Amino acid sequence: MEVLHWRCCGVDIHKRSITVCVLIREEGRKEQKHLRKFATTTSEILNCAD
User: Do residues 9 and 25 touch, judged by C-beta distance below 8 A?
Assistant: First the structure.
């Protein structure tokens, strides 16, 4: 199957939390998956943006 997007992310937003998943694929390398959960306070949302 042909890879259409080498890098993608998903965001799941709830009342008290935000979960972010980033998937990175590179030819000849193992797939990387980064998953982080943040609270919905201003400081945590700013951390998510960083």
Answer: no
